[in-house]
Amino acid sequence: MTPAIAVHNLHRSFGPLKAVNGVSFEIMPGSVVGFVGANGAGKTTTMRILATLDYPTIGTAAVMGHSVVQYPAEVRRVLGWVPDSFGTYENMTVLEYLDFYARALGFKGKERVQRIRDVMEFTDLGPLHDRLINKMSKGQGQRLCLGRALIHDPQVLIMDEPAAGLDPKARVELKRLIRILAEEGKTILISSHILSELGEMCDTLLFIDKGQIVHHGTAQSLQRTDTGITLVDVQVAGDPAKLLQWALLAAHVKILEERKSGARISIDSGDPEIISGVLRRMIHEGLPVVEFHQEQQNLEDAFIDMLGRIESGEVKPIVTSTRPPAGLSVLETAGVSPYVPPPLPLGTQAPESASPPPPPTPVDPKRWGG
After folding, report:
1. Angle at CA 55, nearest 5°, toward 49 and 59?
2. What is each CA distance from 48 to 43, 84, 322, in whole angstroms?
3. Which residue, of 75, 91, 98, 328, has the fewest CB within 10 Å?
4. C-alpha dihedral (177, 83, 206, 42), degrees to nearest 10
């Protein structure tokens, strides 16, 4: 089976800065993959290359078998791009915005009307059809951005920080839409700093650091259970400062997080005798412990743990063969970077001339039942 996304030995440099440094991975059709990494790790640059919005310095990348370098128009036909923020036009309504992009994507007549109806129904934008897009909330804007990306019904979606800045209700709605798209068989690559939500939505996680892939696997494989460290939530009656002071001098104990009525601590052992001994010492030395229970490592813990292991040299980047995938030009691996014109809307073909598109024609809401 041809991977939905195939990236091999991908590099992207900006002068002396190596934003992407030898990234390789494959994503099979129908998968939902989370892209994890600290700020500046290379996530957005990699995604922009896949979306044909940037050029690799060296390496190959393909979407549904189409090279992003050799066949960008083919990639745009099968790819939907949802950036963390997107440009808007002044004095344009939701309906006019979607109609403008449907026309740019080549839809005509009844087919265009039907695609817009389907997208507005899926993203629940119908009640907002006459809302000016620069007057929308962050959550409404993200739904509009997703709707624009879905107009041509792409097989692959790339979503860069779609939940950033959303309130809890909007994040729940976004997760619901992503689950529906996954059930329809679409391949989704999504980046986010809200790691707990990625764990719920994604089949696997890609962890990138300093432009290199250091982990590709399930959330469970990232959450190590062989660390020899036990995480414990401790709650005390009264002032938690006593617990913090006690932990500074206690053997085997380290404060991980201060909490309102206590702290989250780590005990550098999984031995039940040592764990129970920590609790006995707390009580013996006068700490008013009201709760002491073990916690599982969450994805945020795993993220921080992974960064620490990378810095210590315990974790090395994933290295693959330097041979490019079959069917892709070797020129792509040589750093050949011809002039790239300004990107067009995803799904469109390059026009014969570089003249800007005409302003959109006003849309009659009555045609959509508005």
Report:
1. 85
2. 9, 11, 22
3. 91
4. -170
Placement of tokens 């000016």 in the chain: 132
Residue 235: strand pairing partners: 262, 291
Question: Over the chain, what is the mean pLDDT?
Answer: 83
Q: Alpha-carbon distance 275 to 273, whole Å?
A: 6
Burial class for 296, CB neighbours closer than 10 Å (0-12, 13-18, 19+):
exposed
Q: Is 43 helix (H, G, I), strand (E, B) or coil?
A: helix
- Helix H segments across 123-255? 138-150, 168-183, 195-201, 219-222, 241-249
Closest to 214 in 3D by CA, of 24, 12, 19: 24
pLDDT in tens, 156-184: 999 998 888 788 888 888 888 988 999 99
CA-based nearest residue to 296, from 233, 217, 215, 221: 233
**Beta bridge partners of residue 354, listed in sequence order:** none
Q: How does strand 262-267 pair with strand 230-236? A: antiparallel
Structural contact between residues 97 and 368, judged by C-beta atoms closer than 8 angstroms: no
CA–CA separation, 360 vs 110, rounded Å?
18
Closest CA relative to residue 20, chosen from 42, 47, 49 = 42
Mean pLDDT score, 295-319: 74
Three-state secondary-structure class, residue 198: helix
> Which ranges constitute the DSSP H helices of 9-152?
43-50, 72-78, 94-104, 109-122, 138-150
**Structure token digits, residue 81:** 């791009």
Non-local CB neighbours of 185 within 8 Å, separated by 6+ positions: 29, 30
DSSP strand pairing (230-236 vs 187-191) = unpaired
Placement of tokens 């690559």 in the chain: 189
Q: For the beta carbon of residue 354, count every other beta carbon within 10 angstroms.
A: 8
Under DSSP, is residue 357 helix (H, G, I), strand (E, B) or coil?
coil
Name the pTM for this structure.
0.74
